[in-house]
Prior knowledge:
Elements: E1 6-11, H1 20-34, E2 38-43, E3 56-59, H2 65-70, H3 89-99, H4 105-122, E4 129-133, H5 138-145, E5 150-153, H6 158-168, H7 172-181, H8 184-191, E6 196-199, H9 202-212, E7 219-221, E8 243-247, H10 257-264, E9 272-276, H11 284-292, E10 298-300, H12 306-315, E11 318-321, H13 330-337, E12 342-345, H14 350-357, E13 360-363, H15 368-380, H16 382-400, H17 402-419, H18 430-439, H19 442-445
Parallel strand pairs: 1-2, 1-4, 2-3, 4-5, 5-6, 6-7, 8-9, 8-11, 9-10, 11-12, 12-13
Amino acid sequence: MTRPLRLCFVAYRGNMRCGGQGVYLWFLARELAKLGHSVDVIVGPPYPDPMPFARSLTELPNEQFWGRWFAGRAKAMLPEPNPFKIFEPLNFYELAGSYFGFLPEPFAFSVRAFREISARLRAGARYDLVHDIQCLGWGILGLRALGLPIVSTVHHPLTVDRRASFVRDESLRDALGTMTFYPIGMQSTVARRLDRMFTSSRVSAKQITRDFGIAPERISMVANGVDTDLFRPDPGVQRSENEILCVGRAGDPNKGIKTLVEALAKLPAKVKLTLVDEDGPDNVGRKRAEALGIADRLDIVGRVPIDTLVRLYQRATLVAVPSRYEGFGLPAVEAMACGTPVVACRSGALPEVLEVGGGGLLVERDDPDSLAAGLRTLLEDHELRAKLAARGRDRVNAAYAWPRVAKATADVYAEVLRERGRPARTTTSESDGRRRANQSSPSSAA
Length: 446
């Protein structure tokens, strides 16, 4: 069994509602703490929910200039209440990067994390290993230069997002913006120099090998987890007979929401779609539903708290995952954990997930007719839904429950430390570091 380790997680965004990286950070840190490991978390905004299981949680602020810029709030770019903070080097870099149309957040956060961890090491703290989550900024290489073993998790490389952005672009100017926005050169260079890369599926591992140039043997395929105590069936929640649930951002072409709305139009009028996404007049799903005359059959509920999300899974007849690409497919796993059958597209890692979970049907990607046929099959066949629901719940609980995933992750940590010539144990707590420093100082010798 791996001995307790002193771990430090760094994540440039930490909130669960900002994406899968926030979910991964919170639950993995919790489960590693349950296994007896000491966990410090250093995170950027939007910040995570409270993490009482962590030894410490340090929030590194930034001004979120790029978010304001891309939201059309250029006049609100100066920091408040002190606009002179703009002249702090990293703030100025983030402002300039936002104006020039590229994503400055991963690099700036990595430098802030490097400064924070360096200060802790100077004060006597020690870490067995640092786990970066999807940042891969230059500052991470600084931590490695200090002698720290570094691993990183990438659910899929940014090249996937860039290709999806090209699909969305409508002009040469848009395409040029896509070319400059994603810091792929930085991330691929950093990734090739780390001790190990984690990813969650075979298809993602192949993508990382191809696009980042990382040798396959340096990639550890450890699937994402799901809290099967939280995401579970609830007999007290009445199932809707004609409700399709989808969890996905319509503005991301990879999520396939437009295709799903087109499939909805091919189903009987009594069938409704609930979409967990931010609403607004520019929502792609809403605009497509209005064009097809089915806006009254679409309910966009926003980004909901996790307990509300669980109830939505428990209530739905089935869950649709119409994605054009998924590095894992967390909504499919969460749905199966709740005993809700899934209809997913044959794309990315979704075939792997449904093969393991066994709780759904696969249909063709980008094909409203194929998607509508799969949805109709489950909507009309109660016995098949019940069979898939029971099988999906059992298999997801066995394969994807967080305790299993955390144990597999800790085993990789131990393997990395053995490769680095370090024992898989923690004798390097902050107090130990201070004691050794005192023992070697002139005052302690006296």
